Write a sequence for this structure.
């Protein structure tokens, strides 16, 4: 079914549902009733949401195309235009109506939005309860699907990546009390455990089976040099680093493994319910005694590594274990945090990672069950988590690291990028929104800022040797070759890692 909407009109479609014009803009909308049966992957994803307590309250709706002209609203930078279209349904009182968007073929979660509650379909009425609710407008009116005027003086029009069809399913979920303080941790830990079932030190092997490092194996490493990998937020060692074993027939991984005598390790850890300092504390208990450690870390992993190396509270324990640190490479490192970790941006952080998740290899993707728990958590009104609060660039922990005057390492290396998604599949990440409103126009790789991921002169000057190994673009000139999740697949990065850690 396809309809053209003219100003002021509304029309019926799908089981008595109704699309209502809510703002005076011209728009052409193509809506289709989904051809059942849905793909097995889509069926499975919806079923995982239902198993998590979401009740389907509408038929699936397929959105194939949209064109729109709308002015970009000025004012509060997080205040979006009011919703333009909503699919009306009957929602029980004291329940929330939530829109979740899925990829038709893969069942991947694309995004989510709060549509209304049992008393009204107005997002505005819920804004005080859920301050982030206005970060996304519901059904069919998300920023990445509409033209919002001009960005940098040029018309801004975004559309779906070719071949991607969005399926919209409306759910209702019971209203639950807002999670704060100690009540928040168990719910967040549940999500962490679904991503990384067990926090552990493991062997980084070529098949990515990642077996645990045993006590006897740790003892055998005494006096040796090891290479340690530390992953980033909402990720795992497999999700972050599998490109090193898969691209170029695993040449980079093999070269590193040979150079370190097979002593290549990876630390799987929880990134939402624990702070980077807590991760560093735990990692310290797992590391073998009497070894020299080189480190390659990604994204939030930079915060874990800097906490381990620069925290006075861990200095004595490192010395007691006789741990020496030599080379550390921060790849897309959140060395000075990320604006996505600010409380008002946490919902956007998860949406960005949902888009990232769709681009990962099937074995590294998070399931719809994980995203169902994340969406449920979001609509319980949280805005601060231990794992993100420690990356808030305006927060206490990052400010403490910025003032750091000590590190246990000899060399800091940086690989970073300023990314522009133009003409790439990464348009699904709504990169223009992130550039304009999250990072306030400053360079970034979609997740971390360009400046904070490099050899910043504000910390550890004269204390550690710092080198920018690779810069994809610069602060004022973005590129489309590499972004936050593709560094380790880059031939240039793999070559530089082998040069730096092996010598050739």
């Amino acid at each position: 079914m396809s309809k053209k909407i003219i100003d002021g009109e509304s029309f019926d479609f799908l089981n008595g549902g109704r699309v209502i014009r809510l703002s005076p803009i011209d728009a052409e909308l193509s809506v289709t009733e989904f051809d059942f049966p849905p793909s097995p992957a889509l069926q499975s994803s919806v079923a995982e949401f239902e198993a998590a307590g979401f009740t389907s309250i509408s038929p699936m709706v397929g959105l194939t195309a949209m064109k729109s002209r709308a002015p970009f609203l000025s004012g509060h930078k997080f205040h979006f235009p009011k919703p333009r279209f909503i699919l009306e349904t009957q929602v029980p009182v004291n329940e929330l109506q939530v829109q979740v968007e899925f990829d038709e073929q893969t069942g991947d979660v694309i995004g989510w939005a709060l549509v209304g509650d049992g008393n009204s379909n107005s997002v505005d009425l819920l804004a005080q309860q859920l301050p982030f609710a206005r970060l996304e407008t519901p059904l069919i009116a998300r920023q990445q699907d509409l033209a919002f005027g001009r960005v940098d003086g040029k018309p801004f029009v975004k559309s779906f990546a070719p071949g991607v069809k969005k399926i919209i399913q409306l759910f209702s979920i019971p209203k639950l009390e807002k999670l704060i303080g100690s009540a928040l941790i168990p719910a967040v830990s549940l999500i962490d455990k679904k991503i990384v079932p067990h926090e552990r030190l493991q062997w980084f092997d070529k098949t990515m089976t990642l077996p645990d490092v045993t006590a006897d194996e740790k003892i055998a490493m005494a006096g040796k040099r090891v290479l340690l990998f530390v992953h980033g937020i909402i990720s795992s060692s497999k999700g972050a680093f599998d490109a090193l074993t898969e691209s170029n027939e695993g040449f980079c991984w093999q070269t590193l493994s040979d150079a370190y005598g097979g002593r290549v390790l990876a630390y799987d850890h929880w990134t939402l319910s624990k702070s980077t300092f807590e991760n560093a504390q735990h990692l310290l208990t797992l590391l073998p005694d009497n070894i020299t450690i080189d480190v390659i870390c990604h994204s939030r992993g930079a915060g874990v590594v800097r906490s381990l190396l620069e925290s006075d509270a861990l200095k004595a324990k490192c010395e007691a274990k006789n741990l020496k640190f030599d080379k550390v490479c921060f790849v897309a490192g959140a060395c000075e945090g990320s604006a996505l970790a600010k409380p008002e941006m946490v919902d956007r952080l998860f949406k960005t990672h949902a888009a990232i998740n769709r681009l990962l290899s099937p074995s590294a993707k998070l399931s719809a069950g994980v995203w169902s728990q994340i969406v449920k958590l979001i609509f319980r009104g949280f805005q601060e988590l231990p794992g993100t609060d420690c990356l808030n660039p305006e927060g206490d922990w990052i400010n403490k690291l910025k003032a750091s005057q000590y590190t246990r390492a000899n060399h800091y290396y940086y690989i970073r990028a300023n990314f522009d998604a133009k003409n790439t599949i990464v348009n699904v990440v709504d990169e223009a929104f992130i550039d304009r409103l999250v990072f306030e126009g400053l360079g970034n790789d979609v997740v971390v800022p360009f400046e904070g991921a490099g050899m910043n002169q504000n910390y550890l000057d004269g204390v550690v040797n710092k080198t920018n190994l690779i810069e994809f673009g610069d602060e004022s000139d973005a590129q489309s070759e590499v972004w936050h999740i593709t560094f380790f697949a880059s031939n240039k990065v793999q070559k530089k890692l082998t040069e730096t850690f092996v010598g050739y």
User: Anything to note?
Assistant: The CA atoms of residues 336 and 398 lie 6 Å apart. Confidence is low (pLDDT under 50) at residues 1-33, 64-88, 119-164. The longest helix spans residues 346-358. The first strand starts at residue 11 and ends at 12.
